[in-house]
Amino acid sequence: MQIMGVSGLPGSGKSFVSDMAIERGAIMVSMGDIVREEAKKRGEPSKETAKNLRKEFGEYIIAELTIKKIKKLEEDGNTNPIIVDGIRSLHEVDMFKENFDNFIVVSIFANPEIRFNRLLERMREDDSKDYKEFEKRDRTELGFGIGNVISLSDKLIINESDLESYKQEINEFLEELNL
Question: By C-alpha distance, which of 101, 125, 124, 128 is closest to 116?
Fold first, then answer.
């Protein structure tokens, strides 16, 4: 079973990779969804939950919960490829590689202005509508080590042109993986 991590800063276009892989039969496990599910249980904002989980259970708790979820899928007989959305540190990458032999990382890059405008359009609960807050979130993500993940990915896709070109590049990459 192929397991692929997807990384990139908010608004870079990670979800398109996941969505297109899902269309080809993959199952997506989102680290962000795991945080949002926990936030809902706790009745607190997801940003706060991500920080609190790390304080309470250690820096890599979200990766640990994600690995646990993937192993459960394997135990239940899943053989479909799995997409892990939201890899943020090299240590997380190492954890996934220790647990899954064929784990690879694809990262998506787009400049800050493009990403901010995308976030304004998508209007998700945890997206900033203020550019200074957006920059603060980027710095937080970079503090987790996401820049290292992006720079050392198995594949880097630049997403700064039109949507059709981006989708074509994703399709070509997924075909290389036989997804």
Answer: 128
